[in-house]
Target: ABC transporter ATP-binding protein
Amino acid sequence: MAVHPEPKPSVVVSHLDIVYEVFGAKRGRAVAAGEEEGGLGMVERLLGQREEKFGHVQKVHAVKDVSFVANVGESIGIIGRNGSGKSTLLRAIAGLIPPTSGSVWLSGEPSLLGVNAVLLGDLTGERNIMIGGQALGLSAKEIRSRFNDIVEFSGIGDFVYMPMKAYSSGMGARLRFAISTAKTPDILMVDEALATGDADFKARSSERITQIRKDAGTVFLVSHSNNTVKEMCTRALWMEKGRLIADGPAEEVVTAYQKTFPQKKKPSSKQTSATDS
Ligand SMILES: Nc1ncnc2c1ncn2[C@@H]1O[C@H](COP(=O)(O)OP(=O)(O)OP(=O)(O)O)[C@@H](O)[C@H]1O
Ligand SMILES: [Mg+2]
Model:
């Protein structure tokens, strides 16, 4: 592990709250995640902890009073169940969602790489590399010089000349990761994108994440794969219903999470899964 005697903060999140306002929600019917939890969900709603209804505008309190400091050289996994606020937290750090209250401070340029990152399905991988590279601040010449590396890293071969809508989700995710890391970002944020990769791609992305940390970057990784977080992260944040309930060494936090929410073994399935096998 890289040793940084004096931690150098790269991200400071202070008392962050994010409340979404959903227009057009049907009155009297809850839409927030966790609905399947039955009785508990209802109690929380009655206590006003989950959502408040104002006419047809429904509020979803997705991130609640979250504070932490991330340092240069750390790779931080964000774990938690569906709807716990992981993606919202990441998008807020990336500056894509303004804080409802509290603040986010960054010392560098963030690069968010998510399942919904803006790659255009109608365009070829090649065009998306050009556009994505420019969005990262690379010149056309720089992108051309890195083009082969990007394609090689993504492992999509000649598919790069096909429209992206013809890609499998794994191929799309791999190309996204390759583009987003073509220029070493100060703060790399990855939301689930590695989940669809095969073992070989995971090994390559793990190497690249380590490289980014060594090059004085900070990496955030949202993942439902406990093993991926254990293997790739130095630290983990555990989100539960919008709150940060644990923050510490990845191994410890993930182990505590696994004890609380053991993952059921799936009967043998050929499908690539976002969860651990
Ligand atoms: N654009 C949005 N508008 C309104 N509510 C939203 C929006 N995005 C997320 N939410 C709500 O905010 C809460 C947190 O969602 P978020 O996507 O951050 O969770 P998550 O931890 O990333 O979940 P998952 O593991 O399923 O990806 C959920 O209750 C969700 O329904
Ligand atoms: Mg998410």
About this structure: Confidence is low (pLDDT under 50) at residues 29-38, 268-277. The chain has eight helices and ten strands. The longest strand covers residues 9-23.
